[in-house]
Amino acid sequence: MYLIVTRSFPPELGGMQSLMWGLSRELSKNFMIKVFADYVENHKDFDEQTSFSIERVGGIKLLRKYRKAQLINEFIKENKIDGIIADHWKSLELIKSNKKKYCLIHSKEINHPKGTNLNKRVLNVLNNVEKVIANSQFTKNLAIECGVNQDKIIVINPGIDPTEELNKKSLDKVESLLKIKTPRLITVSRFDKRKNHEKVVMALRNLKQIYPDIVYICVGYGDEEENIKKLVKELDLEEQVMFFSDISNDLKNALVAKSNIFAMPSIIHKKSVEGFGIAYVEAAQYGIPSIGGKDGGAADAIEHEKTGLICDGNNLDDIYSSINSMLENKKYLEYGKGAKDNVSKFYWSNIIEEYKKILGN
């Protein structure tokens, strides 16, 4: 039996939640699994439908990690377990056991200056586990720089589920919303400094001269939303930029499928960095190529000049020329085909094989 210890789990939405759900579900097909997850409202209906046991831990955040660790430590004493898999180094910090431990790392949560108290805490956990599972080559390199023992680190990219057939109603709705707007750029993410929406908007100002009907679709919400909207207004791009927040999954997927380029040239902002970028892979399923930033793990998700382009997210000219070169002669069609042909390596059915190798099955 393996314990999965996570602070992020459905029915809550998000990239980490999807990752830990996919991993738990796939592992449960090969091993006995028990998940210790944080309490989420309306979890009962979700939990009842899973094929494995989920124990939810509630209470105020500060005390929750102690309570959770206590429950896990007691469970380990009373049951035969083979190992513990955690979503975050903090999830393992208070677990007292000599059982094999495996910790996933994503990048920004380990990105602390060497020698600081947080850095020491990270190393104390990660240098005492069986394996550290990095979500990209970038995250592995970052961990080594931070002082994690290189021999312990293995790179396993996050997995995705094969896409379901798109809903015709949603596809028709997208066409009626976008009408003649083309070419179409899209970003699906939080409005966060590191996602770099503002540079795409700034590039749009010049692209509009060549492509008067161009549109940039922004799906998401977040702290930077008002700043981006203000910039759109200042640059007189209200006809070219469309914002969507609380929309259905069907409509979100249809918007991606009906776009030409997924644009998210991420940057490093303070300690915040894109460890991988599952959104690029999700776009690839619909034959949509991506533009990602060189700072972060995008290069694991995008093969440069095959499934999209990697550019310097801090350089506006580079973002502009990357978008323009993909639009010229409809190069995005070739990259989009490459993206779709390449995407199956990220399917959970393939990714889980990498986990089985390190867990010994």
Lay out the secondary structure.
Blueprint lengths: L1 E5 L8 H13 L5 E6 L4 H6 L4 E5 L3 H18 L4 E4 L2 H4 L7 E6 L11 H10 L4 E4 L2 H10 L6 E3 L12 H11 L5 E5 L8 H14 L4 E5 L5 H10 L6 E4 L4 H9 L3 E4 L13 H7 L5 E4 L4 H4 L6 E4 L4 H12 L3 H12 L5 H12 L2
Parallel strand pairs: 1-2, 1-4, 2-3, 4-5, 5-6, 6-7, 8-9, 8-11, 9-10, 11-12, 12-13
Characteristic key phrases:
single chain, alpha/beta, Rossmann fold, seven-stranded parallel beta sheet
Report on the structure:
The protein has 361 residues and is an alpha/beta fold. It folds into two domains: 2-161 and 347-359, Glycogen Phosphorylase B (Rossmann fold, 3-Layer(aba) Sandwich); 168-345, Glycogen Phosphorylase B (Rossmann fold, 3-Layer(aba) Sandwich). 42% of the residues lie in helices and 16% in strands. It has 15 helices and 13 strands. A seven-stranded parallel beta sheet has the order 3-2-1-4-5-6-7. Strand 1, helix 1 and strand 2 form a beta-alpha-beta unit. Helix 1 crosses helix 15 (348-359), helix 7 (168-178) packs across helix 10 (249-257) and helix 8 (197-210) packs across helix 13 (316-327). The protein is globular, with a radius of gyration of 21 Å. The model has no long low-confidence stretch (mean pLDDT 95).
